[in-house]
Design goal:
The chain contains 12 helices and 22 strands. With 423 residues, the chain is α+β, with helices and mostly antiparallel strands. The protein starts with a strand and ends with a helix. It has 2 domains: 260 residues, FAD/NAD(P)-binding domain (3-Layer(bba) Sandwich); 146 residues, no CATH class. The structure holds flavin-adenine dinucleotide. Flavin-adenine dinucleotide binds next to helix 1, strand 8 and helix 12. The site of flavin-adenine dinucleotide has 39 residues, from helix 1, strand 8 and helix 12.
């Protein structure tokens, strides 16, 4: 059977971009996707709006990349956030920049991103086979030979000059990403860093259901592991049916989940009034207590109505009604508002975690080319790699940048091979 030039496994954000970069560099590509259509995850990103990237410059952008932004630097500068915007605009997707430097399609529709990508992929002559589940990557004497895949109950083998693994992580397995790429890596003798859900809900140990869908804007959040504060964030926190989410809930979830997995005690403290110090808050409370004798009435000046009953339940019973405008209670209430502490008893797993932290070890990959150190014709791109970002468009940029780099480098390698054979 004729040997393919390049096989890309996975038609998600990283795989599609890798296929585009390779095809634009003159290489023929077979894209194998296990689902019945491509980019199923992209279609649900950004609450259906797809936060494509973020316009922050590298110095700031890099602070949102984990666990090692330096590894990502080469890919970022090969295909940056600006390149992502230019690329999408060039294929007919107008983009707009919103709050927090987040970039969305102007239409506000995530499926438009996939549709434009697919149109472009077709225009480049890339072959896509859907419902094609890659089962294994075949190697012989340190070279990748090709892949074995299943389609419609039949098993096929395709040989290729190079293979790119862009199979995603473990989160939202219903979109097709359920960890196959890690299995391929392990079977090839490559190391994979322990994976865990990230950008996921943390479950507090009190009845948070009455607070469902409450959004607290501009609050502070401190993450404690044991007695130590290990992370502090400011921004938006949301209570959902799963617990604490929102941008700062997600931000601390990476460390919190890891600590919980390690069996450590995890708690958070919410600062409802980060803009004022405790002394000033206490003085304001004292003044208001002169007129508002009921705790409910008093608290309504300081927090959303939905939070009042829960907050009263958190306070010691003696504060149920305020009868005396006394410095003591005012100080204590101010303390609770500035440091509302809650233990975290668990987290939401992969079924609803936005991303997977961990993955194919960076030690296994040459970051300039996203190529395996062990197999010179095997490349990795996207969430399958031990790289992840905060919310804000960083994860898709990781997928696009590493996908582009892997695709371009695979194409260079294949062209070099062809040239050497024709000499
Ligand atoms: C609900 C949600 C919202 C999000 N919102 C945003 C956002 O707004 N902005 C942002 O930057 N990030 C967001 N993310 C994260 C972002 O979507 C991912 O990090 C990104 O899509 C990863 O791209 P990927 O190509 O590496 O993996 P995926 O998108 O998961 O694609 C992997 C592909 O590989 C295929 N595949 C897997 N195994 C095989 C196999 N054996 N054979 C063939 N095919 C296979 C899968 O079917 C899938 O199509 C969100 C994630 C979720 C879950």
């Amino acid at each position: 059977m004729k040997k393919r030039e390049l096989i890309v496994i996975g038609a998600g954000a990283a795989g599609m971009m890798a296929a585009v970069a390779a095809a634009r560099n003159g290489v023929s590509v077979l894209l194998l996707e296990k689902m019945e259509k491509s980019g199923r995850k992209i279609r649900i990103t950004g609450k259906g709006r797809c936060n494509i990237t973020n316009t922050k410059d590298w110095n700031e952008f890099s602070t949102h990349i984990h666990p090692n932004a330096n590894f990502f630097k080469h890919s970022f500068f090969s295909f940056s956030n600006k390149d992502t915007i230019n690329f999408f605009e060039s294929i007919g997707l107008k983009c707009s920049v919103e709050r927090g430097d987040r970039v969305y399609p102007e239409s506000g529709v995530a499926t438009d991103v996939v549709d434009r990508l697919i149109d472009h992929i077709k225009s480049l002559g890339i072959e896509i086979k859907f419902n094609s589940v890659v089962r294994d990557i075949v190697q012989e004497k340190g070279q990748i030979e090709g892949v074995i895949y299943e389609n419609g109950g039949k098993i096929y083998k395709e040989d290729a000059e190079a293979v790119i693994v862009a199979t995603g992580g473990l989160s939202y397995p219903s979109t097709g990403s359920d960890g196959d790429g890690y299995k391929f890596a392990v079977n090839l003798g490559l190391s994979v860093k322990d994976c865990h859900p990230s950008l996921t809900a943390l479950t507090p140990d009190f009845d948070f259901i009455p607070l469902k869908w409450l959004i607290l804007k501009n609050v502070g959040l401190s993450l404690f592991v044991g007695k130590d504060v290990v992370q502090q964030e400011m921004g938006e926190l949301e209570f959902t049916d799963n617990g604490l989410e929102g941008s700062i809930g997600y931000k601390v979830s990476r460390r919190a989940v890891k600590a919980l997995i390690n069996g450590e005690k995890v708690s958070v403290a919410i600062d409802l009034k980060p803009a004022v110090d405790k002394q000033t808050l206490s003085s304001r409370l004292l003044k208001d207590m002169e007129t508002d004798k009921s705790m409910r009435k008093l608290l309504r000046h300081y927090m959303p109505e939905q939070l009042v009953e829960t907050f009263i339940a958190v306070l010691p019973k003696r504060f149920a009604s305020v009868t005396v405008a006394d410095v003591g209670p005012a100080n204590e209430i101010a303390t609770f508002m500035k440091e509302w502490r809650m233990a975290i008893k668990g987290y939401t797993s992969y079924e609803r975690a936005v991303i997977t932290a961990g993955g194919v070890s960076m030690d296994e990959i040459i970051s300039k080319k996203m190529v395996s150190r062990k197999f010179p014709n095997l490349f990795f791109a996207g969430e399958v790699v031990d790289l992840d970002g905060d919310t804000g468009g960083y994860n898709l940029q990781i997928a696009f940048s590493t996908g582009y780099t892997a695709g371009r480098e695979a194409a260079y390698l294949i062209r070099k091979l062809k040239e050497s054979m024709s000499e």
